[in-house]
Specification:
This protein has 322 residues and is mainly alpha-helical. It has a two-stranded antiparallel sheet with strand order 1-2. A two-stranded antiparallel sheet has the order 3-4. A two-stranded antiparallel ribbon has the order 5-6. Helix 4 crosses helix 7, helix 4 packs across helix 12 and helix 5 runs antiparallel to helix 6. The longest helix has 27 residues. It is globular and about 60 Å long. The chain starts with 6 loop residues before the first strand and ends in an 8-residue tail after the last helix.
Length: 322
């Protein structure tokens, strides 16, 4: 999930049933700057970013039903699991390992949830034909239902894009994906051999004039629709400065594929490590660079609050499953 230096929200449709009507989706891996997300959550007195990093995106939604006492109790049990050497202290390294494990589990559980939607012949593999039928079968059989130009354009664009992504994930080239290959297809941000696809899909979505680059206006238009004709918000002005100072590395007024890769997948940033350091810094009352269970419980709202994870289910699992 994710990592890559950014919180990754993969807006990929989980598919329709074989005869179901497909769902329009924006099928690009979306990266959000964690520092901007933290600033926003501080303004809103929310710790959603930290909750999702610490506990997983899906699981983070279910703590809304817990009382503070239940949250703290479950958090204490989670802390015991994070403390790998059982010395009573949580180090940055232990937090880093936990966050990465949560991210990895999210990815593979997400694939497991949708696997049967695509493995139509139940041979424990997903062929390109199976995926195409499950996702686009209705559109291909009933094109008259998609008379609006926007719908037709979306599906005509999505099908070849998905085929390109599937073929890149399919390492042996047989157009049949095992679970690891299908995981790479659904979560390309997690696999090194899929990084070029992530860049190409980002470029394809933002490059509106088709020149193979992303200029400043295209960069801004992807995140802000200037509909009322009024002045741009301050955050948009800041993003223009970001484009000029940090995105356009060679200062030619536009981003090429290498610059897009540097933007969305910076090599010198480890999301899990940064989040682990952030949690330690914010909760380390005695400044010994480690956290006790008491320090974590004292700052429980940052870790889980009342918006964290269904660890009632997690706590019944074998430790190795986490």
């Amino acid at each position: 999930m994710d990592a890559l230096g950014f919180v990754c929200a993969l807006l990929l449709c989980t598919g329709a049933a074989v005869h179901g009507k497909p769902t329009l989706r924006k099928d690009r891996v979306i990266f959000q700057d964690p520092e901007l997300l933290r600033a926003a959550q501080e303004d809103n007195k929310s710790f959603q970013y930290d909750h999702e990093a610490f506990l997983g995106k899906d699981e983070a939604k279910t703590f809304d039903q817990l009382t503070p006492e239940e949250s703290k109790d479950r958090l204490g049990k989670i802390v015991d699991r994070i403390d790998g050497d059982a010395d009573g202290y949580i180090t940055t390294a232990e937090l880093n390992a936990w966050i990465k494990r949560v991210q990895k589990r999210y990815v593979y559980e997400n694939v497991a949830k949708v696997w049967t939607d695509y493995d139509l012949n139940k041979d424990n593999k997903v062929s390109w034909d199976e995926y195409k039928q499950a996702t686009y079968g209705y559109y291909l059989s009933n094109p008259e239902d998609f008379e609006e130009a926007t719908d037709q354009f979306s599906f005509k664009k999505m099908l070849p894009r998905d085929e390109r992504r599937f073929k890149t994930a399919d390492l042996n080239g047989d157009l049949v994906a095992d679970k690891e290959e299908f995981t790479a297809f659904l979560h390309p941000e997690e696999f090194e051999h899929m990084k070029d696809i992530v860049v190409l899909e980002t470029l394809g979505d933002i490059d509106k004039n088709g020149d193979g680059h992303v200029d400043e206006d295209e960069y801004i238009a992807d995140m802000f629709a200037h509909e009322d004709g009024g002045p741009e918000p301050e955050w948009v002005k800041t993003e223009r400065e970001q484009f000029s100072d940090f995105r356009d590395l060679n200062k030619d007024g536009k981003m090429d594929q290498d610059e897009i890769r540097h933007w969305i997948m910076p090599q010198d940033y480890d999301h899990a490590q940064a989040e682990a350091r952030h949690l330690v810094y914010e909760s380390d009352q005695d400044k010994d660079q480690m956290l006790t269970k008491e320090e974590i419980i004292e700052n429980w709202n940052m870790f889980v609050g009342s918006q964290a994870t269904n660890y009632g289910e997690d706590l019944t699992r074998n430790h190795d499953e986490l």
